Sequence to fold (270 residues):
Amino acid sequence: MKKSKIYRTKKEIVEAFKESEEKILMAIYECRLEKSKNTLQAICDLNNPRLACAYSHFIHREPLDILRKICCLDPKYAYDYATMVDKGPRPETRFSAYQSPKDAYFYARNVYQKPTKGSRTASCKDPWYAYQYARDIDKKPMAETRDAACMSPLYAYKYAMDIDKSPRKDTRKAACKDSQLAYLYALKIDKSPRKDTRQAACKNLDHAYQYVLYVDKEPREDMENIICEHPIFKLYYDTWKYYLKKREEDIKNGIEPENLDKKYFGVPFW
Fold:
């Protein structure tokens, strides 16, 4: 098996660095570049954050201002440099990482390992990372993360479910921009029917049908008019009403309600 070439002389390094970025990375990963002034100069001349970060981690193995500065041209590699080389926070890597909601979140979680105002504000530029920040780092609800999460119906719902753990007007309003999430909000968070969640759920027949079954839990004329526009859902709805009627009759005849639920509602109506 042919042994991989190790680049030592300045000429060899210059020739190697004429290759593609992927080939240079492979040489770094395989430690075919030595820790030397020539190699460092070649890396710095490329001004490539990805290569600078890889070289710092696999070859140089200690913090260096010039390499850190190059890595900080990209938030991802600023974060990687902080975790793999500095092994702690520094103003340069922090400022760069905060340019990206994703890297700001991971910087707070894995580098600072505590919430900070700057990382929270940066993470809140994206509803997904705002929700994650509240869940994993703050570990409590805050107005800033909630407002950011409410930019997305999904993360507004998840925020209410996992972090607030209670209904709120703002998270409900955001969730109601999606018919399925409006239904789920009513079912799992409000745990009761409301006019606004019902109206939002009714934008989709399937969600309207599930709403009347599992949230309203009783027939409603307004819901019937919407659901019965479609023949399949009309069949489901009429079947459900029939079983409700049978259930009431059996209760009057002394049959225990828990047995009725198993008898009539053990299968879904769609």
Remarks:
- The mean pLDDT is 87.
- The chain is about 70% helix and 0% strand.
- The two ends are 63 Å apart (CA to CA).
- Residues 109-163 form one domain.
